[in-house]
Amino acid sequence: MAVRKKTAVKRNRPVTVRKAQGPVKSEEQWIRTTVMIRGASHLKIKSITYWEKKGIKEVVDEALRIYLKGKRVKPLPKKK
Fold first, then answer.
1. pLDDT confidence of residue 24
2. Which pLDDT does position 28 carry in this prediction?
3. In degrees, to the nearest 5, what angle opens at C-alpha 25 toward C-alphas 32 and 23?
4. Which of 9, 32, 33, 63 is buried deepest, with most CB atoms within 10 A?
5. What is the pTM of this model?
6. Helices (DSSP H) in the chain: which residue ranges?
7. What phi and psi, each to the nearest 5 degrees, are found at residue 18?
């Protein structure tokens, strides 16, 4: 049985280094989070993304902007 050597594959991808950062205060920066939603809402969102040629992120962002528009929100208490 012959043993074949694996050839090294070089990929010319730029290496990115991520630095650990504290909490982000920018309102325009995207924050990754996980949420649980009802199945019916998920199906509607998927349908909207298909017919409007948008991503889930854009559809949910638009829905949240509409919901939060004009809401009065108290600031969070400062941590001690």
1. 52
2. 80
3. 60
4. 63
5. 0.60
6. 39-51, 56-68
7. -105, 130
DSSP letter (8 states) at residue 70? T
Give 10-residue mean pLDDT values along the chain (80 residues). 63 62 69 95 97 96 95 90
The residue written with tokens 């991520």 in the block is: 18
Q: Are 27 and 17 in contact (CB under 8 A)?
A: no
- Angle, CA of 40, 70 and 63, to the nearest 5°: 25
Query: What amino acid occupies position 22?
Result: G
The answer to whether residues 26 and 19 touch, using CB atoms and an 8 Å cutoff, is: no
Q: Which residues contact 54 (CB under 8 A, 6 or more apart)?
A: 48
